[in-house]
Amino acid sequence: MLNVVSYINGKRKTNSSGWVSFDAPCCVHNGETADRKQRGGFKFSTDTDWSYHCFNCGYTASFTLGYPVSYKAQRLLSWMGVPDIEIQRLTLDSLKHKNITQLIRERQEEEILVNFPEVSLPESARLIDDNDIELLEYLRNRGVDPWAYPYMTDTEQTRPSILIPYTYNNKIVGWTTRFLDDRKPKYLNNCSAAGYVFGVDLQHDNWQFVIVVEGQFDALSIDGVAVTTNRISDNQASILKRLNREVVIVPDRDQAGLALIDDAVKYGFSVSIPDWDAEVKDVNDAVKRYGKLTTLISIIKNKNSSKIKIELARKALERKL
After folding, report:
1. Which end of the chain is more exposed for a tag (fewer CB within 10 A), N or C?
2. CATH code: domain of residue 300
């Protein structure tokens, strides 16, 4: 199998998280000057599978054993000086490892089309600003940065509210309105995109994990994504898998959260159930109590991919409810 690291010209370094950094060969082909600050990097998820990211021009590529070498990966390897015959041989060697399980998974994923219709926001919606003191205070009390997302408000609503746009591939596909008073309903949803995952557009290519929670504010407070319910659909599972990183499910601390754990096992995702205080019912509560960094560390520290360990953690959580 092709050893891509052997084709790195010049100096390279490997950091504690496993990134192999070197002068990116892609910049001069993407309208930038030649990289001299080692801003290109390989990250290996296995001995053979890798992803590449340039922190200068933004070029990305990846390779997974069992699949053909993608066009972007071919370009990268060519820029690194890998001969065409070696790139062709890599595809042939890779396809020899394709098995029936991969074929079935590909067919299933092809059948799940992710194409949410674009919608328009209410004409009465506007971005919040410095004068929206009550809205800004609410967001800060939820442990989120008021300026890190395009939070809006609907001027036609008689109750104070925050409108959260839903985006996918940088298109508006819906929104939800969160009312700030104690009256019901608390939320008003407007999203016809079945199987939508909130926050996918906010994920970075070089992140190793995607943290999946139930609610939008849980996701916003931890830079994760939200399935907006306590179940994961086939469509949502497909979206999460296409991020090509470890999926870590963090359920709410209630009976409904147990169903989310069951779905995580069904789709082969990791699960994290940190030992938070009894008053902490979800990720947003944890961020408000412990802070974002401590919450993130506890989630990653307690993640499990073993079905047996997940089941034991599930039973322990169920006994506490």
Report:
1. C
2. 3.40.1360.10
